[in-house]
């Protein structure tokens, strides 16, 4: 469905991280007409925040394309979503691919990032593709509502984790590897009630460009994806019911995207066949919003 009328049942969740299994309707991580072509066969991929939303869809599509997949989640809060994702990945795993693993971690802290990477390397020997995707957001109509503790927490989840995951993955990456960061359309057009979240997403764009310049000479490509409104657990755990019911209607296509519509951008950037000459760039699957930069 390119465009059309859409609404979601009014719903909220009390806290983040949101839970996909409580959402109605469930986000769509898979599209039945997707045709895998072994684009990632033999690669080891690590996806942060891979238990739900865009992260789950990326893990699933990577598995379909032949990658061995590891993902992180928040223990005691996302256990069911993580288990559901593992089941999906096991069903998608192709021959000669190692079984998927889920790693519980609070990636806002450097030691936790190092341990997550060490766990993947211990299991699979290396990291070929890092997808930095974990995120949180909180509504604040006024700047004065964002205190130091919240600002630090949002930056730890949304930016510090990207920085430190890249730092430790690079120790195990060879030429042909890829890092893909999840930013947002809000980094380009702003969002009046998600000001701290938007600031982290702008930082991710700058980080992507700077890291690209540092490692492209090693044959490692760094890119990003900037989704528009997508139906993920962030939405009911961030916004009040009336906002959820109308989520996504403000883009030219008139609807929110589904995770399976975003995941192919990550496959494209992870695939040497598709994007070997693309580095330091941002893809924009955002429902038709035209952005600059």
UniProtKB/TrEMBL annotation:
GO molecular function terms listed in the Swiss-Prot or TrEMBL record: oxidoreductase activity, acting on CH-OH group of donors
Ranges where the record places region Disordered: 1-33
Compositional bias (Polar residues): 1-15
Sorted UniProt keywords: Oxidoreductase
Similarity annotation: Belongs to the short-chain dehydrogenases/reductases (SDR) family.
Protein name, UniProt field: Uncharacterized protein
Native source species: Spirodela intermedia (Intermediate duckweed)
